[in-house]
Design goal:
Elements: H1 6-24, H2 42-62, H3 74-97, H4 104-134, H5 140-164, H6 167-182, H7 187-224
Helix pairs in contact: 2-3, 2-7, 3-4, 4-5, 5-6, 5-7, 6-7
Length: about 220
């Protein structure tokens, strides 16, 4: 090889090196958008937890053959209803925030899950009201509303946990569904004590674990940057 051909050989070697580098090195990974699995449920947990502790707790101490405290009949149900409404709105808002940056299919799934809270409680209202009216047993609402509302919340959490691959959500839903229905065997006021302690305690524990999960997820995301 003559000295005059050396520059051409060097250019060919550089081109071969560029081709090998392009073939071997992977392309930078695209940043994944936020998904519905990143939902922050602490506010919803707190709202439902307060509803259980205050609403069911008030019913536990004011009902039964020997009530501990005399309270207006509307107060326990009012506290429970206000807490359930607040918890439902917070859950729907949290689901809405989780849609930011999500893909089209994930966004649709999140919206449908949010709407299921509204349609589920509307159906529960019709079922309990209709059953009590048909049997002419208005007292049934005192037992069915607290237990079936807890069951419905548990089932909704089961669905959301499975869809979003959120084990904490799924575990809480399982706990609520089982304890709410099992409480029916205890009658009044026993079922209210179970719902206040087991249900309220479950939401409190879930809020603590949710904070740890989000902190761990945030730390993992920061470390990967």
């Amino acid at each position: 090889m003559s000295p005059a051909d050396a520059p051409d050989q060097i250019d060919q070697i550089d081109q071969i090196g560029d081709i090998m580098t392009t073939a071997v090195l992977p392309a930078p990974a695209a940043v994944r958008p936020a998904t519905t699995g990143d939902i922050d449920s602490r506010a919803a947990y707190a709202g439902f937890g307060l509803a259980y502790v205050l609403g069911h707790g008030a019913s536990a101490v004011s009902t039964g053959p020997d009530p501990l405290i005399a309270l207006p009949a509307w107060l326990p149900m009012g506290l429970l209803g206000a807490g359930l409404v607040a918890g439902t709105l917070l859950a729907v808002l949290a689901a809405g925030r989780a849609q930011r940056g999500a893909g089209r299919h994930e966004a649709l799934s999140g919206r449908l899950l949010g709407l299921s809270w509204i349609s589920g409680f509307a159906a529960l209202f019709l079922a309990i009201t209709g059953l009590a009216a048909e049997l002419d047993r208005p007292d049934l609402q005192t037992m069915l509303w607290p237990t079936m509302a807890g069951f419905l919340v548990g089932v909704l959490y089961l669905g959301e946990g499975a869809t979003r691959r959120n084990v904490l959500h799924y575990g809480l839903g399982t706990w609520l569904a089982l304890t709410s229905t099992a409480a029916l065997f205890l009658g009044i006021p026993g079922l209210f004590w179970v719902l206040a302690i087991a249900g309220g305690g479950g939401f409190a524990l879930a809020a603590v674990l949710e904070s740890r999960r989000l902190a761990r997820t945030s730390g993992t995301s920061s470390a990967s940057r």
